[in-house]
TrEMBL record:
Signal peptide: 1-20
Positions of the Bulb-type lectin domain: 22-132
Lineage: Eukaryota, Viridiplantae, Streptophyta, Embryophyta, Tracheophyta
Name by which UniProt lists this protein: Bulb-type lectin domain-containing protein
Species annotation: Hibiscus trionum (Flower of an hour)
Gene3D superfamilies in the cross-refs: Bulb-type lectin domain
UniProt entry keywords in alphabetical sequence: Disulfide bond, Glycoprotein, Signal
PROSITE patterns assigned: BULB_LECTIN
């Protein structure tokens, strides 16, 4: 498992009652690059980006120019975490947000399980994890 900081790029835990982007449980699949979780104004979206025919990176992109503003990465090396076409981002009932490779291992984890997080939202400034 790879640990990351929750604070870069506007990762916060807050209590709010604004629109839900991704209720529990939810899954993004690397094999479906048209699937994404987007901000209400569509400024940002979280999706899998194709690197090669069989490798993908989970990334947040800005709608202008599809610039990558964040990607799941290894804190020790800073390298992007790459998954195969069976990779998935799972937002589980216990609030865990985990990226798994198709072979099953967790390759990236938000370490927010069992902390009361029950929905993922975006704001105009980027991604937010919220507690409802």
């Amino acid at each position: 498992m790879l640990k990351f900081s929750l604070f870069p790029l506007h990762f916060f835990f807050t209590i709010s009652s604004s629109s839900t982007i991704s209720p529990l449980p939810s899954t993004l699949r690397a094999s479906d690059t048209n699937q994404s979780w987007s901000s209400p104004n569509s400024t940002f979206s979280l999706s899998f980006i194709t690197i090669t025919q069989s490798s993908y990176v989970l990334a947040t992109t800005h709608n202008v120019g599809h610039v990558i503003v964040w990607s799941a990465s290894n804190n020790a090396t800073g390298a992007a975490v790459v998954v195969d076409s069976s990779g998935m981002l799972n937002f589980l009932r216990n609030g865990a947000l985990r990226l798994v490779n198709g072979s099953g291992p967790i390759v990236w984890d938000s370490y927010i399980a069992n902390r009361g997080v029950s929905l993922i939202e975006y704001e105009s400034k980027g991604r937010r994890i919220r507690d409802s």
